[in-house]
Amino acid sequence: MTQVRSAPPSVAKQGTSFDELDARWRDAVHDRLAPMDLRSTGAIPGVGSLEARDLGDLLITDWQCPEAEGVRSTSAARNDADALVLFTVTTGRQIIQTPEKTVVLRPGVLLVMSTRATGNFVIPEAATKRTLRVPLTALAPYDTGVGIPDFLLLDTRENRLAQLTQDFMSGVDAQLDRLTPTEVEGARGALLTLIAGMIRSGHAPDVNETDFLPFLRKQMERWIADHVTEGVIRVGDLAAAYNVAARTVHRAFAATGDTMGSVVRAHRLAAARNDLVHTAASVAAIAHRWGFCDASHLGREFRREFAMSPGDYRAAHGIA
Questions:
Q1: How far is CA 49 from CA 43, 52, 67, 74, 95, in A?
Q2: Which residues contact 259 (CB under 8 A, 6 or more apart)?
Q3: Measuring CA to CA, which residue among 84, 73, 56, 104 is closest to residue 199?
Q4: 2-202 classified as CATH 2.60.120.10
Q5: By the number of CB atoms within 10 A of the CB, which of 22, 30, 123, 226 ranks highest?
Q6: In the chain, what's the furthest Cα-to-Cα distance?
């Protein structure tokens, strides 16, 4: 587990130790949540503390946060890897404001938020919270319904899968140190299944004309998953498969904030990751199987998404 402890006022006055802790805190927020500008707002400046535990590429973090505020800019969102972050609060509250809405995160609710979202947040008093960062490539093989939401607030008292997801993350605390690599991979899959089901259950059940494009996009994504081993996938392929114009293909993916290329890439990377973890196939063979030009091409794309080379990822998480 990774820990960053709060600096007491006496240390804060000395300067150096506080600055080091503050830098570590900001780095942790950047790496485990998302890049953003942070500012302490307490009467006595201080940093928080965290405990980190991971299920492969799923980053679970418990935070003890000081009074603070932050800004997530458009440029930061554009340069960050696409991911979802799940937020729950145990004590205190956090106010999150995006261009579309404002919510107050309190105990009893679970927020699913895309790293594509921008806006401000305020922690008006010390708070404890748990977050889970999930790369979109991890969710690519799972059915999330009409698409991945930018913003979804769920009441854990009413949405049973949201409560189960929260309980599952709590259960990881007691078990993670005793899990074998095979069991870690199984737990990862179980958590992703819960998250996908929770997102599906959070979508409005009624379908009208405005829902056509998101549903079409989901059908097209299933087609991509079924054909990802067959070589290059073009817009014309999807247009022909569903008897629509190429413009409709672009609109279908844009309706959920995606492009066809990003979805194809996510499925290829998810499949390559699965082979790295579950098989002893060479990186070159995996690259060829999933449509990358060669091992170097896979390596570049893989490092961009997972911040590790394929070989290092297999050494850390492989179970074959």
A1: 18, 10, 13, 27, 20
A2: 250, 253
A3: 84
A4: yes
A5: 123
A6: 69
Give the model's pLDDT for residue 185. 93
CA 1, chain centre distance (Å): 19
* pLDDT value, residue 11: 36
**Top-level class of domain 210-317:** mainly alpha
SS3 87: strand
Fold matches, 2-202 and 210-317? no
Q: Write the DSSP string, 93-136.
A: -EEEE-SS-EEEE-TTEEEEEETT--EEEEE-S-EEEEEEEEEH
CA–CA dist 22, 12 (Å, integer): 10
The answer to whether the CB of 181 falls within 8 A of the CB of 318 is: yes
- DSSP, collapsed to helix, strand or coil, labels residue 179 as coil
User: Which residues contact residue 48 at a Cβ distance below 8 angstroms, ignoring those fewer than 6 apart?
Assistant: 4, 6, 25, 63, 64, 65, 66, 68
Q: What is the pTM of this model?
A: 0.76
Of the candidates 270, 191, 256, the one whose C-alpha atom is nearest the C-alpha of residue 224 is 270
pLDDT value of position 211: 62
3-state class of 83 per DSSP? strand
Q: Contact at 8 Å (CB) between 59 and 132? A: yes
The domain segmentation of the chain, as residue ranges, is 2-202, 210-317
Q: What's the pLDDT score for residue 108?
A: 93
Residue 161's alpha-carbon distances to 122, 199, 200, in angstroms, are 28, 9, 10
Residue 283 C-beta-side C-alpha neighbours within 13 Å: 17
pLDDT attached to residue 284? 95
Amino acid at 167: D
Tell how strand 119-123 and strand 109-114 pair up: unpaired
